[in-house]
Design brief:
The protein has about 70 residues and is mainly alpha-helical. The chain has 2 helices and no strands. It has a domain of about 45 residues.
């Protein structure tokens, strides 16, 4: 199973809604709600990336490395 960032799931959902505009009772409300969720999620992911100093699913330098025995 491939790991997908929440913002990518929101983008897919937004793309699906845009493809089906006219089928929804109020597509503007749906697009606005999904767009706001996408923006907030992307900002949150960017803040976490900056705070941790690494991208999603990456290890920081030195993580998981066993000590060198001499």
């Amino acid at each position: 199973m491939e790991k997908v960032a929440p913002s990518e799931r929101f983008r897919s959902e937004l793309d699906e809604v845009l493809a089906g505009v006219g089928e929804e009772q109020d597509p503007i409300e749906t697009v606005g709600r999904l767009g706001a969720r996408l923006i907030l999620q992307q900002v949150l992911e960017d803040e976490v990336t900056e705070f941790l100093g690494r991208r999603r699913y990456e290890r920081a330098e030195g993580d998981g490395q066993s000590p060198q025995w001499t």
